[in-house]
């Protein structure tokens, strides 16, 4: 018996050596040999931990060969085992997490990738694991923020990973995955600091061209990223220097071919990886005008998918990161009838793919988040619109406009429609038919529905529907050389700047559509896309010559009543919801925090607004300590009108960072009403008023959607929202909101009430400065426009209106007294 113990120990040592050998083989890309070793260990494991290690490594082989679904299932089944919580097995648990993170990254479940990487970092820190585990976690987090195009947030993580790598002993550096670190450096600096790209590329290329025998699979992503750097350079050059394009094309193609060689040599069963590289080569050649070569690469991808009998949703995954060659703005491969036939074939293909695209979106949603975001997603619906436009120009068949409108409707706010149906148990309305819509329009109304054509071409497609006509128009958004965005305070800082911006937006975006509207039309309903969401149509000006005042500018708002909604389909969904609701609640609420003694500056006019709303309209006002998150969650679901007045915080790169500074009695993040709080509080409000700064800002990276605060309150159930595109002035906004509620009480529609309140403000404005749009044009209505039943106590309102007007005088008087204190002794006062 004494002789059996060392013999058993020897077997364990042998298996431990075999697992290390398998790990090295996997690193070098020799999967077949590694698999044989792992199979032997799994058949006769000498210890449970050896079996777990073998299963983790075999999951890695599955992932690197493209079978990520099986890899994820295997890793999840391992990670639930209690044995992995034992301290001596934490290393195995961490290895399993790292491979699981790579699986999620490979299928673009990027939020899951971040979540697992966070877990790895916590495990490594709390259990004092080898520092290379922390380095890998930091690298993954840097990769996440590079993917999310937030390089400044990712840089500290990357710096930490690089510092740990540089300080590691030379013989241990290989365990820090330097190829991944340098790939993350290159990826981050594509958007952060391009001067650092060449040194990083040279360093890592020198490493992989030497005797470095590890990270074979990571080298595929490295070469794809390097190719992307040169592709960026080609796109930035915009065809101006053909010699530079030729050089950059050669470098990018060389990088992609290196990735392709690694795949074919070491990972021949990773068909999706090969398809992805083929698509990148196709996109590269397409952008360089080599359309025939681009077409051949895309055909190779489609042939691989067909040969391997991949389901149709894999095709949409393939096309999500590229374009078919036919999406060229100018086609130099086919002409005439052949080109016409090619476009029809492509249109048929995209229509066939479209339903599976929606399934792909659902499958890839992270269950812990309430929205879907993929930076590189390319919807088939935009391609359908583009092809319908091209075919309509040739054949003038109105069926193409109808197809294009249906594609726009399917593409717009898919997530909002889907979740609204699920949350409120309402049925999906039939896709709108243009003829039926025309029957519902009066001769004075028109609908303008926009869709985008991706970031490469910066084009908008607008469908204009009136009672008599329907048209489709292409708008070259790239011609707008003024700053892309809304007339925020910096653009409104002087008349010259504002005139230039607003007229340029009019010339590029609205003027091409004006010829499609007859003189009777005075009401426009706009369904914006992501790009067109940046622009406030009512503030566009049609002329600037000889006009030297803000009030004299010919705003579109003077000639048209302009309102916005998410889509026509969503209007129908909201109509179904309205039929389900019982009698409207009489409860109306205002949340107006007191920011005294906080880092936020005080808003005295909003405080006065709360008093006025309470007195004149019987608002239930939550102020001071009562304006808090708990009261919102408990009461907001009962309200018919919800008014916010105060401060908010937004992040255009992360929709989940939208929040309202709500509770002045708390500190830190606990004082904020977050996006999760908003969407998890079910509302029945007819109107939500967000008199908060920049609530129109939001995440633009969802297909044809714009995830601002109005979007999330609509998701929660509000039929309409007033929101702002820039920082609001509390004095002028308070005046406009009082007038707005006054006109609502008179029975006006919401858009008419807002427009009339803004006109009243301009009539009372005394100076040219007060007529600047930054003071009166910030609020925008989106959603239902029907009147709201509201009662006003006129007698009390007059008193508070007087207080509102005299408050500035009192504040000015106090300031003067502080600047020129009274000498009481000289006046003979007894005060000392």
Automatic annotation (TrEMBL):
SUPFAM superfamilies: TPR-like. It comes from the Bacteria. Pfam families: CHAT. InterPro entries: CHAT_dom (IPR024983), TPR-like_helical_dom_sf (IPR011990). Residues 501-784 form the CHAT domain. This is CHAT domain-containing protein.
